[in-house]
Amino acid sequence: MDWSDLDLCFVIPPRELRRRGGAYSVLRDIESLLLRNDFICSCRLIDAKVPILKFRDHESGIECDLNVNNVSGIYNTHLLSMYSRDIFVALRTVFSYAMGITAVVVHTVAPSVHIVIDGPFVRALLEPQLFFCSRRPVEEVYRKLDLPWRKVRSANKSTLGELFAGFIAYYADFDFAHRVISIRRGRPSRIGRRVNCCLPLRKRARHASSFKIFVEGPFRKDNAARSVSGATIFADIQDAFSRTDEVLRAEEPLSFAWADSQSKTFTMARFGLTRDYLSDLSAQIEQFFRRSSQTSETLEKKVEIRNNLQSVISRNFPMNSLHCADSKLFIVGSSVNGFGFDRGDLDLCLVVKEEALESKEYACTVLSEIKPLLLGFGSIKYCSLIRAIVPILKFRDLQSGIACDMGVNNVSSIYNTHLIAMYARVDSRLPPLGVFVKHWALRMRIHGADRGRLNTCSLLLMVIQYLQCGCSPPVLPNLQSLFPLNFDGECPVDELDMDLQLPWDELCSVNRSTLGELFTGFIAYYADFEFDQWAISVRCGQPFPINEVPSWFATFRGRRGRSKYRIFIEEPYRKDNVARSVYRENVETVKRAFKRTNEFLRERKPLEFL
């Protein structure tokens, strides 16, 4: 299209790529070179499964994506260019953008996938040399290909309108759950037969159902539509084909099909909700946020508690035993990230600068020596040491009545606090939505790490993940990909800037959904979410299959290969599971809470009935 991006692939010898530390390292070097040139602007490195460098040409304004050694993209380009000589392909591409089902960042269908989908419908019998061009060096791919074009031209004389209507009808009735789309074979095949060769490992066959749509890459034979993981987004794709098919059969203008897709980001018709019901729900969320969110007076009290404790620890800690005289106490969690209740606890993290250990034994030792110091401090009472996976010291400030939890050297909690606080600044709808989700989870009895339920961090990461990829267009970007230097977890914790200046105006979303629509979409997204097959990852900006990265899932698999954790929510920095506290028996409770709430919302009942 005239306004489309420019995709580039930089090819270097594999041996040289390994020597340079991989594609990400090469792109990082290229980024430093491009930033020195005036003709390049908005340069940023995206650490995805296939790392890309995104930048904009200053003169033309064209957005560019650069990858390294993704040679299958070159072969695919060559193959698809042979198919795309027909104007029908361009017409179908316009349709996909109009219906809002093309955008990889929100788990919809990548533009190249649409041409692969077209293949089985408008396929032609091409010579074998076209299909096996991956055996050639990539520099030879773009040489003029001499094919018997007259022979491969079909006798089918259907018009563009007839072909488009047939394309829509074909996929409106397509069995995505059991069929693989493959232009390599020229016809769909059963997903059970094809999955073993489509996926790198044979044992992944049982996880084929985790893909909502399976479109085989012509050369690598993997799933080109693997970004479509959410049931809600998949329903949007099916709805686009079905709704357009109905419009065409009724002989109505196409504008009837995509008018709602362009004007709304939330399909009220699919959920059976009225505008009045969603407006009332939005008002309820806003009122609860104003009534329950942390006030500036409460924050001042918490800061005062922190300052008093810092003074006690620095003054009285036995320096000859644990060397904590220069340690620093940080406020972490909801108290400072924008999602705090006015009656919420105060979470603290003591960072011992001369000890980088995050071991349970060391934390228990430090906290056990701090405990008598706090009990000797007049305003502290009910002090107890909890020897959990992350040991904490629980106590209460008598003057303010605020309950406090103190951990040791859990620096990832400081980085997470900073990251979530920055997400809260991107969009003003996130704090009230997050606070209301916490309230909803408490009422549904699925919140509370001390009782084997979801902790606050898990819930907030789930909300952020939904706003990154569960709604279209996305409400939130991927800050760790856009600004890796600010959110790489390498900055000293005492240098983290809670007033970090980012291009906030550029990060604002065009999504104008109300709080009621976002909450309903959040519930629907996780009501259909396959927790046993997908890991939630704010760092990636989208869920990834649990079995896709062996070095990650091996750390949380049991002796017999079964998943130890039934819910995996990736910690953005340490990449472990922040939902590890959820007991097995509580997993079904979490799923039921989402499904039950989803049913109540669809029936337009007040949430109080829950």
From TrEMBL:
Domain PAP-associated span(s) in chain numbering: 159-223, 514-577
Family matches, as CDD domains: NT_PAP_TUTase
InterPro entries to which the protein is assigned, alphabetical: MTPAP-like_central, NT_sf, PAP_assoc
GO CC term (a single one): cytoplasm
Gene3D superfamilies reported in the protein's UniProt record: 1.10.1410.10, Beta Polymerase, domain 2
Keyword Cytoplasm attributed: yes
Cofactor(s) the protein needs: Mg(2+); Mn(2+)
Family label: Belongs to the DNA polymerase type-B-like family. GLD2 subfamily.
Protein name: PAP-associated domain-containing protein
Organism: Taenia asiatica (Asian tapeworm)
